[in-house]
């Protein structure tokens, strides 16, 4: 580092004390200027290195994690978990490819691949599985699968050969089993699902929204319009986002069952196709979906709405893919 200083005015002859003061002042200035330039150079270099590091980290994270999933616990606490996409291209007998997203999918035995969606009979399905397999239905021994991303402390879901998370299947080299499996999921009228999520999670205070537990239904629906689908809580995230049911990279599903056609009957059909025991059971949540009249009253007469169809239109926009997938209409039951 080279620092050039001008000589300045000629130092007067005479008083030696004045000469020493002037000399010391010039020396101090030179030292401080040298230090300042050096520190500035170091700061620029450090900032540059830091910037490169952050960009590299950001790029690494982006390449590993495609979205952030929110899974809320038993008491409503939320934990953000990055979900990893595994695009598995499987050759079928006809020569076509089957594409899967394993981030939220669950392998049942060796023949079934199911994508769970909260507020669409998921608790009933897990209860059904527990009954036919003799697993605990509640408490710490309850068997459920949630995403376990790379680098997280989440326990991988691997219950013998009976129920395994698709992510863990990929990790352990069992991807081909998913290619040969019967793939299925359940869908539900979004207007009923949003109402169910509000009544079960928001109105009860189990999940807070923006720190609030006193949000009205109208406020909750408006809040949904401010969120990106992949930022939504699992209980009201669109099926199209959780299970990739639409779009150019959609998961292949052999069957998509509609909750409105009867969960028990649909579930029995799925279990039969994967070779599991079939039996009747009651829904884990005994409440049934409202009639069309009740649905219309709930949405069009909600407190605080600006016009009759305000909330109806918001749900139609946010869940457009799910509505199209199930051919759902607001004024029809199924």
Describe the structure concisely for a colleague.
The protein is an alpha+beta fold.
What distinguishing features does this structure have?
two-stranded antiparallel ribbon; single chain; 334 residues
Please characterize this protein's 3D structure:
By secondary structure, the protein is an alpha+beta fold. The protein is 40% helix and 11% strand. The chain is built from eleven helices and ten strands. It has helices at 16-64, 122-133, 166-171, 175-179, 190-202, 217-224, 239-242, 263-273, 292-300, 310-318, 320-326, and strands spanning 67-72, 78-83, 90-91, 97-98, 106-108, 112-115, 158-159, 163-165, 182-187, 255-258. The strands form three sheets. It has a six-stranded mixed beta sheet. It has a two-stranded antiparallel sheet with strand order 1-2. Helix 6 (217-224) packs parallel to helix 10. The radius of gyration is 30 Å and the shape is globular. The relative contact order is 0.12.
């Amino acid at each position: 580092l080279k620092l050039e200083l001008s000589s300045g005015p000629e130092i007067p002859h005479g008083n030696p004390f004045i000469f020493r003061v002037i000399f010391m002042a010039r020396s101090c200035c030179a030292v401080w200027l040298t230090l300042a330039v050096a520190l500035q150079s170091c700061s620029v270099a450090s900032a540059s290195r830091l910037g490169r590091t952050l960009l590299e980290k950001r790029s690494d994270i982006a390449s590993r994690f495609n979205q952030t999933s929110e899974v809320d616990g038993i008491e409503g606490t939320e934990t953000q978990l990055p979900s990893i996409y595994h695009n598995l291209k499987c050759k079928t007998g006809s020569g076509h490819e089957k594409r899967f997203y394993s981030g939220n999918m669950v392998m049942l035995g060796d023949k079934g691949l199911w994508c769970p969606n909260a507020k669409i009979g998921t608790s009933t399905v897990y209860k059904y599985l527990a009954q036919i397999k003799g697993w605990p239905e509640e408490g710490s021994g309850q068997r459920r699968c949630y995403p376990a991303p790379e680098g997280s402390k989440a326990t991988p879901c691997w219950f013998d050969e009976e129920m395994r998370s698709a992510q863990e299947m990929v990790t352990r080299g069992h991807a081909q089993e998913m290619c040969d499996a019967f793939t299925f999921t359940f869908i539900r009228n979004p207007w009923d699902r949003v109402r169910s999520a509000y009544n079960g999670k928001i109105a009860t205070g189990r999940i807070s929204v923006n720190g609030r537990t006193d949000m009205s239904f109208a406020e909750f629906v408006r809040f949904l319009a401010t969120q990106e689908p992949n930022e939504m809580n699992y209980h009201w995230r669109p099926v199209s986002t959780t299970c990739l049911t639409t779009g150019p990279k959609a998961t292949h599903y052999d069957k998509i069952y509609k909750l409105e056609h009867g969960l028990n009957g649909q579930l029995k059909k799925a279990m039969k196709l994967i070779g599991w025991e079939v039996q009747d059971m009651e829904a884990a949540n005994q409440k049934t979906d409202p009639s069309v009249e009740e649905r219309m009253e709930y949405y069009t007469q909600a407190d605080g709405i600006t016009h009759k169809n305000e909330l109806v239109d918001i749900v139609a926009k946010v869940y457009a893919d799910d509505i199209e997938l199930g051919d759902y209409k607001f004024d029809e039951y199924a």
